[in-house]
Every structure is written in C-alpha cells, then in structure tokens.
Amino acid sequence: MNYLFDPAHWSGADGIPTLIAEHLLYSLIALAVAAVIAIPLGIYIGVTGKGVFMIAGLANALRALPSVGLLILLVLLISPAFPSRMGYILPSLIVLVLLAVPPILTNTYAGVRAVDAAAVDAAKGMGFRTMKILTDVQLPCSLPLVLSGVRSALLQIISTATIAAYISLGGLGRLLIDGKAQNDYSQMVAGAVLVALLALFFDQLLAFITRRVVSPGLTRRTIKSAPAAETVKTPATV
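^ that's the sequence the OP posted. Answer follows.
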C-alpha cells in the first residue's frame, strides 16, 4: 500500500489521477454504447415478444466470450486499418460493450415483461396509445430492473477495463501490468485496490440514483404517513 501514499505517483502523465480518468473514460463510453444498443432492443423484445431467442442464446453466448482472447483477435484485425491509438482503443471498447450488453438486455426485457398486465389493460381502457402505454406505464414500472442491469454492467466493465493495459493502453490496468513486469507487488496491490474502490463507488452511486428516480411503490419503500388526528373525547351522557 506504500505505492498509494507516495506523492510522486499522484502527478504526471502516468500518475494515478490520469490512470483513473482513462479507466473511467473507457468504462463510461462502453456503458453508453451498450445501453444505446441493449435498452431499445430489450424494450422491443419485451413488448412484441419477437426475438426472445436473443435473450437465451446471444446474450448468454456473449457472457461466455474470453475477454483477453477476443481483445487480441480484434487488435490483429482492426489495428492495421487504424495506424493511430484508435486501432487499440476501438478493440478494447468493443470487448467492453459486448460484455455489458447481456445484463442490460436481459434486465430490460425482464422488466418490460414483468409489468402487470392489468396496468396495461387499464391504460388501454383509458384510451392510451401504444407509445403512451410504453412511456407512461411499462417503462416506469420496469425501471428498477433496467437500472439493475445497468448497474451490473458497469461493475463488470470497470473490473474488466484493466485488459486495455494488455495492449499498451492506459487505465488502472497499467498498475497491474507494470507492477507484474517489475515484480512490484505494492504497485499491483494499489491497482487492485483502486479498481475495487472505483467499482464500489459507482455501485453505491447507481444505488442512490435508483432510490431517487424509481417510484417508492415499486421498490416497496414505506412512506411516512401524516400523524393521525387526535380523537376528541366527548363527555359521557348521563
């Protein structure tokens, strides 16, 4: 842990703040791309019932992909077309996106399908159109599961983004790779601790956001009721 408390490691182009910023950049870009792909697709499958095979088949297949092996393969295929650093950044992002799509897709689909049919029928009875039912009934009711999928995906991305260091990119994986090359176990422990702290921070941040944006009725949070009015005692009749 001495590595973390050395001021020399907290400044410069290879300092810890720079590595954290790079790690977060890869992670958040991958999460945004995965959400743009998986959430609309999960909503479509959940509403129409078409393409359910993608949930059981494609999503599970993506989970089984070996991240490092796929990363090296993509670098060999893509880097010749991109002589700059993009030839290494793009494969890393593709791997992270493929890792993040399954939990978001699965949870979005499950959230939409779990909406009470009676609520949907009531909305139809009130004259709501299909898009109005989706935006005002199905999406709000499925929001807890959707956010749970995003939360799970982000944790997996943050923990796996260290693979970018295998192809000479930045991020907290640099501490692990460089520490191993130099037999510097203090540096390796520092990298592992920082990745864990980063994951815990964003896990709690998304949990806080979920509590704020999701209806208390959906999460079964109790709402303090107003104090009951005092009962006026009437004199007993003689």
